[in-house]
Every structure is written in structure tokens, then in C-alpha cells.
Design a protein that fits this description.
By secondary structure, the chain is an alpha+beta fold. It contains 8 helices and 9 strands. The strands form 3 sheets. Strands 2-1-7-6-5 form a 5-stranded antiparallel sheet, with helices on one face.
């Protein structure tokens, strides 16, 4: 849909297509368009990085497939059965942290059988929205909930924040009372819409070693020349 407002009227047609292409290509989560036989039509930069890494999926001769033949057939069968309702498929890696989850659906109106896919590695980075704003809790309480979502125990939160374990537990009881809940399961369920998973951060190149610098007092000392 393209809005027809006074300001939006200048951003139509090819301009919208160009902006959409730039946005999806630079998106932090892997996106791809595939034919139902697995042939790659388009993918963004994040998807290319995922396929070039130690992913259980690989691009061979233009076809997206898994590294293991027995899982490729299951992946292809899932692709062929996709309709216009989102469906999930998991491609197993060597360890659970190496799995890839794919959400896909058929693209309506495409000339060929094309499906739109969002891929996610099990080691994806977790991003969390502002829980203080979303849930109406204090920033201190939001920090505790955030750490719980990322897997920290109350004891670890105490160590990380410098708060006593009693204070952390008091914060948690106040959070429960504020939200009208009584368990962590309910808390996590409330927070789930505000959790996003993006691709892992790319490792930064290691800077080259710097030459050792002389102590300040030795920088201007001329070497002694022996007399002959």
C-alpha cells in the first residue's frame, strides 16, 4: 500500500521501490526470495553473510540447500508445500546453537512459484525494546527484566548490578504486582512481543599491534657515542 498524503504524494512509484530495495537489503535480519525448487531469486546482505558462515545451509549453483543430503529433501518438500500462510522450518546444524529457523510464505501474484523467507540463526543477537515504556515499569525494574530475558539468574543479576539479592527479589515482587502476574512464565509471555532477534554481530577486525613506545623521559635522550 502507498499512502496518498500531501507529503507522501512525492514518494511514489519507482521511488518507493528504490527505498524498499535499499531498506530490505540493509535490514539486519536475513531475507530471501526463493522459487519453490530452492533457486535463489534475491537475498539481502544479512542472508549472504549467513550463508557464507558456518551455517547448515549453503548456496550451490544458485540453489539454496542444506549441507546434508537427507535434510535437503525435507527442506525442498517444505518449500513446495508453502501457501499464503506463514510456515516454519528448522534446519539442524552440528549443535543447537548452529540451527537455522526459516519463516516463509508464498508470494501472491508472482509469475513463478516464489516464496518470501526470513532466516534466523539460533545464535542471533537478542534486541529488546524499551520495557519501561512498554510495560509501565521503572527503568531499574526494566533492567532486571531485561537481564532475566537474556538468561541471567537473580543471583547473577545481583552480581552484575551490585544490588543485594534481597533488593533484586523485592524489585521482582514489585514488577509482578505492577503487572498483575505471579510467575516468570507470565512475565516472559508479556515481554515476548518486545523481543527481536537479529543476526549475530560481525566480529570487528583486530587492530594491528602498535610499536612499543619509550618512556617519556627516554624519548629525547641522545644515544651516547663512545670516544676513540
Amino acid at each position: 500500500m502507498i499512502a496518498n498524503g500531501s507529503k507522501g504524494a512525492d514518494v511514489v512509484g519507482e521511488t518507493v521501490s528504490l527505498l524498499l530495495t535499499r531498506w530490505t537489503f540493509a535490514a539486519p535480519y536475513p531475507l530471501a526470495l526463493l522459487q519453490k525448487n530452492g533457486r535463489l531469486v534475491w537475498c539481502n546482505a544479512a542472508a549472504m553473510r549467513l550463508l557464507q558462515g558456518a551455517s547448515p545451509m549453503v548456496l550451490r549453483n544458485g540453489l539454496l540447500q542444506t549441507r546434508k543430503a537427507n535434510t535437503t529433501s525435507a527442506f525442498r518438500a517444505w518449500l513446495k508445500g508453502l501457501e499464503d500462510e506463514p510456515s516454519f522450518h528448522v534446519v539442524r546444524g552440528e549443535a543447537p546453537q548452529g540451527n537455522v529457523v526459516i519463516q516463509a510464505m508464498a508470494v501472491s501474484g508472482a509469475a513463478d512459484d516464489v516464496v518470501g523467507c526470513r532466516l534466523r540463526g539460533a545464535n542471533a543477537r537478542t534486541e529488546i525494546a524499551d520495557l519501561a515504556l512498554a510495560l509501565g515499569i521503572t527503568p531499574a525494574q526494566s533492567g532486571i527484566v531485561r537481564r532475566m530475558i537474556l538468561g541471567s539468574s537473580l543471583e547473577q543479576i545481583s552480581d552484575e548490578t551490585g544490588l543485594s539479592i534481597t533488593t533484586v527479589r523485592t524489585h521482582l515482587r514489585n514488577i509482578y504486582a505492577r503487572l498483575g502476574i505471579s510467575s516468570r512464565d507470565e512475565l516472559f509471555r508479556l515481554c515476548l512481543p518486545y523481543v527481536f532477534l537479529d543476526e549475530p554481530e560481525r566480529p570487528r577486525p583486530t587492530p594491528p599491534p602498535q610499536p612499543a613506545r619509550k618512556p617519556w623521559g627516554q624519548r629525547f635522550v641522545r644515544p651516547h657515542r663512545s670516544s676513540r
